[in-house]
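Note to self: the last two entries modelled the partners one at a time, which told us nothing about the interface. This time every component goes in together.
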Amino acid sequence: MTTPFLDANFALNVALLLMLLAIALAVVRTRSLLAAILLMGVYSFVVAAWLMVMDAADVAFTEAVVGAGISTIVLLGAILLTHGEVVRVNWRLQVVPAILVLVVGGVLIYAAGGLPNFGDPASPANSHVGRIYLETTYGDIGAPNVVTAVLASYRGFDTLGETTVIFAACVGVALMLGFGPRVDTAPTVDVMGDHHVVLRVISKMLIPLIVLFALYVQFHGDLGAGGGFQAGVIMAVAVILHAMIFGLGETTKAFRPGVMRSISAFGVVLYTGVGIVCLVNGGGFLDYDFLFTPQVEAMIPPGLLGDPDKPHHWGQHFGILFIELGVLLTVASTMVSIFYGFAGRTIEAIKAERGS
Amino acid sequence: MILLETLYVAPPTLTAQAPVLAIIVPLLGACAAALAPSGRTGWMISVIASLFGGWMALAVATEAMREGAIVYVLGGFNPPLGIALRIDAMGALLGLLIGAVGALAAVFSGHSLVAEVRTEKHTLFQAGFLLCQAGLVGIVYTGDAFNAFVFLEISSIGTYALIAIGEGRDRRALPAAFNYLILGTVGATLYVIGVGFLYAATGTLNMADMAARLSTLDQNASVQAGFAFIMVGLGIKAAMFPLHGWLPGAYAHAPSLMSIFLAATATKASIYLMARFLFEVFPDGTAFGEAFLTWVLAPLAAAGAIICSIQAVFERELRRIIAFSSIAQVGFIFLGFALGSAQGLSASVFYIVAHGLMKAAMFMALGALALSIGARRLDEFAGVAREAPWTAVAFAVGAASLVGTPLTMGFLAKWGLIEAAIASGQIWIAVVMAAGSVLTVIYVGRIMEAMFFRAPAPGAPRAKEAPLGALAPLLALAGLSIWFGLDASIPEQLSQAGAARLFEVRP
Amino acid sequence: MNTGELLILLALGLPLFSAAVTYAVGRMPDVRETLTLVSCVVLAVVAISIFMRVGQGEPPELMVAQPVAGLSIAFRAEPLGALFAVMASVLWGVNSLFSIGYMRGKREANQTRFYMCFAIAMFGVMGIALAANLFTLFVFYEVLTFATYPLVTHAGTPAARRGGRIYLMTLVGASVLLLLPGIVGVQAIAGSTSFVAGGLLAGRVDDVAGSVLLLLLVFGAAKAALMPLHGWLPAAMVAPAPVSALLHAVAVVKAGVFTVLKVSAYIFGPDLITELSAATWILWIGAATIVIASLVAMTKDDLKARLAWSTVGQLAYITSAAMLPMASGLVAGGLHMVFHAVAKITLFMCAGAIYVATGASRVSEMGGLGRRMPWVFTAFLVASLGIIGLPPMAAMWSKLLLMTASFEGGHWLTAWALVASSLLGLVYLLPIAFRALFPPIGEEPAREFVRPGGTPGTAVVAVCVAAAACVVLFFLADPLANYLAPIRAVTIMEGAP
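The predicted structure of the combined assembly is written out below.
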């Protein structure tokens, strides 16, 4: 077999890498924060595309949703509070950071020499635990998507931790930025004027679709790419879109800031609660096989999920369902809370400006 | 001698689940505190959750002492498939430290939060505090390299905001929190990059499994780079000289509760994680591991111990003096690691506990004084011993332990380190420790002189003795420093058993 | 609990109890001072009982705590320590008597703190005297340092604080940098730090390691003021006279030389120490210290400074004695520790009495004052003779023994230094008393009384008692030497490692 002069895959990789490099340089060069943020969104999309090329669908999805989506929105909210321009820094102050960056880059390049080839089936990552996951997931968990099985069940404790990190971020932002606009003081649609009518009509159509998509991502997580994290972010985007178009006042009436924070905590409680139920039933923490006592399990109709003859791991199935729900609640409400925090600050800032 | 078993009473079913309960009870407490209707309720939740967490840590310590090491499997999947907590005696000791200081700090916060933080933020503040506690316990308990990263993040994310809240009292809290945020995130990122490299080389995230597979891989470039990334990443988190830039501001300008808790536990958890990578994950005798201990860790630790002590001598603000002292003490701890012996490791872990207790007492005493006076510079503390004798005495006990006064835990800690240094023939390390101790005497002497022997400046605000609710935990902390100075059997046995075990299983 | 344990507990507990009571009744000076005197008497009785029991061959012992394996807080009386305890507790009583007169006469502030710190310092001294191992000794050594720091800075002036800082930094610095590593070294080598008859380290160390440890331990005990670590002693003279008297003639400096003696007798042992090269170096340094300190003392016009420098020299006698253990060196050291203490405390109390009564602190201001204060200056004369080592003063014996020991050991340098120092003593001490008592005819006393009523009565009593002791001890030297003999004899009989 002859190797073609230019492998298509290779060419694609090089092209994407060059794009990433170009975007990164542009981000460094530009002095406009707005441009930098948008470029970073683009960067994330390119990374997502690249990850797709590498067949890492779940990661690509997350990168697109979080990196290009919600991060961009939050950063945009943040620069409303700043001058929007970078102050030029004396180059001498940048010498040491530059050296550090070069050192880290050098170490990374050195380290790459020890990495196995991409996709090598004999590489440690593919031959040890990774291989066992592939072999046992279906038997142990019953979920077709191995990534979901690993995240939600095998390493469910990590995911609980990550959900807690999100909750911690909610707490942190609320502490730092306050609690978002008070319901009665936030501007409503009236003060926003009437010239967004096209946007409003379109968004009224879009928002239900976004929510629907979020639910699809949520409940389809164990079959394809997706899960609570991505669904939560998409859900939050629907709410944020609503706030952008219809005014914060309208949104906060429907999704009160206090309630959002409570939901964020509740998501973690739900997740932990699943673990504790397992624990009370005699298993280890988060051992979903113990989620239902045998009596409860007997009450589940065998045909609930189709084929009644196929053995079902009800505990695993419902355990994953519940904890993904917890993740969804925490992520969505935290993202909304963070947005509220920034938006509330912005409103205060605008008011202060008008007042003075 | 008092044995652990006599202190711990609980049904065995609870004991079996203690490792995970020590983590998730504070975590659930955080959720409950965030939902609490009033600051007072939030405080009560915080106290109960911390106390329960501390109780569970006691259970874990008892078990770890009896069993040697506990492995708690999560999700029903044995490692390396699933995640497991793996707690040896040293980890259990650190968990105990975090639990004890957490519980006492929580009790203390009833008064100090009211004085320092706006009322409507109390519930969230307590939530953040409990999250930090859960995260730190997780770091020392987990047996999984990536899980440790997750807990590192849990303990950090909330902390950044909690430090920034100090702005109500001290505007410098904002830049300090920002510095910490940036450096802490860089540190965590470097750590996770390192773990990534190790995963690529070994295909596993479980520390024990990793250790078994790394023993043949020490020539691998990505393993070496992974080691470097992990050490630098954790070095930032642990405030290893010269990566300590974030620490003085973060400790000095944060609200009292956070100063107490962070100073006693936050860097300690990272230091311990570093020790686990150095002595548990990376196999004995790898060329780069040895080189790191001899040519990187030891000189940097010595430099930190001396330079930061000198900075503390010339610093004018009391809280910053103590913060610089913390970095210097981290240097002492790393010097123990650098000895590369079981004795050195166990002495260092003992030192960690001693230092945690003394610094918690000192920061808590300052927090108690902050209830009545807003003093920052050392001169402004002149004569407080007359107005607030008990607080001053508790501070003095902590300071005495810091200096290494006999009959305090700090003395035994220094003794152990110096003895380990002499035993392994590294006399220069003993010399550095002695020199650092003298510098400690200088700056602590300045503080003591101001507090006890100088008259307050005329017209200066008069300090008042702290109320009982704040004084009780403070005296308890000071009492612990004394107790373990008179009978150190509990920390000594745990640290020695853990270190001996770690060095026994190594090839 | 047997009697021995009880006695040790009492010896340690009484000063602490006294400190607590002093604090409690601080507002009633009469009660406070009465109680202080009562504690002194009781403590002296306890110390003497311990002394007797040691003499009868049933030394009291007490084990208090063992923080970690191999390190214990434990007490065990032996002849040297029992003697030190008796000396310190008796002189505490005498000095308390003097303090009352002095402090009231000067109307000093913070008197309660003063008496409290004094009592805590005595707690430290008792601990040092009775310690069964180096670790315990170290603990109480530090207690003594920190308890005396507030006494040194009692005046609260910038000068006092500066003196206090030098005092604290030198003592703590040396103990942390030298003494502690030395102790840890002993622990690392021998696995314990107990005082063992015949020497803990005997047969366990070579010349290099032994020399390093000896240097660490001797210089680490900076309270012994061996040059070049003597600077704190003159600096600490900013303290009030009673403090200088008790602490810088008796408790603090003697704790230093006591440590050196204990290290020599029980850590290294007579056989080992004579073989160590470092012992010879220390003897040279000691000889230099003796001569230099005496020379400097001559140049000082301030009486207390002169006495301080004299102390530096006298302490070097004892350190040298500790390095000459094969003959009567150790006994000479132990005796000189006591005799010098008695003589020096007399001198300091005289200096204090003169200062209270007339405000004179310089030697040049004291001409003819003997006519106003005959008792005080007579006592001063007696004590001066004691320091110089002339009969019928007790210190004659210890000097004699020391000189014999240095000749026996072939250390001529030490012997000549002793002779030189005695001659210099004649020059810097005797003229003070002579010029005061027998001024040239026609010369009027240089100063008037500044205190109505002249010298405080209690101070005069204290001074006279102490001076009398110098003479009485002259006749007790032989029994005391016999009492101390076991520290040497035991080593000869059981000394084999």
